[in-house]
Specification:
By secondary structure, the chain is an alpha/beta fold. The chain has a single domain, classed as Alpha/beta knot. Helix content is about 45%, strand content about 20%. It is built from five helices and five strands; from the N terminus they run βαβαβαβαβα. The chain has a five-stranded parallel sheet. The chain is globular, with a radius of gyration of 15 Å. The two termini are about 25 Å apart. The relative contact order is 0.24.
Length: about 160
């Protein structure tokens, strides 16, 4: 199984980049993992929120493969404990999922088409966070889930 982390927006600021790279490298001890930062469409500043979501959605849907398992990070998604996330990942591994794509949508969320394409909708919190911090938290939580599934000491209960 392989992990792809996709996020719409600008590249990481230095204050989060080191942490994201560190956790992504650690995840690589369990599964191949890489980040794809998707630049917002040209003229994004003059588009309505709905137009922007549609354009971003087209980019996402074109890049997805039919067999990709899409986990959409969305504030209306299901909240999971760290152990619950570990169980989701283990289930995907048990079902021989080739690739999981974790998607952090744009500033206004994602289009209805992307929402419908998502295999699982996951909420990190009822709070709203800056996208760059979500990237850091996502990478840390995936690493944590990997250590839980291997019964390693990183996660303390």
């Amino acid at each position: 199984m392989k992990f792809q982390f996709w996020s719409i927006g600008k590249n990481n600021e230095t204050y989060v980049d080191e942490g994201i790279k560190g956790f992504t490298k650690r995840i690589g001890n369990y599964y191949p993992a890489e980040w794809k930062i998707i630049a917002p469409p040209k003229n994004a500043g003059v588009m309505s929120a709905e137009e922007l979501k549609l354009k971003e959605g087209e980019l996402i849907l074109q890049a997805l493969k039919k067999e990709d398992y899409l986990i959409l990070l969305d504030e209306r998604g299901k909240m999971l404990s760290s152990e619950g996330l570990a169980a989701v990942l283990q289930q995907r591994a048990n079902e021989s999922t080739k690739q999981i794509v974790f998607l952090i949508g744009g500033a206004f969320g994602v289009s209805e088409e992307v929402m419908q394409r998502a295999d699982f909708k996951w909420s990190l919190s009822a709070l709203v966070f800056p996208h760059q911090l979500v990237r850091l938290m996502l990478s840390e939580q995936i690493y944590r889930a990997c250590t839980i599934n291997r019964n390693e000491k990183y996660h303390h209960v």
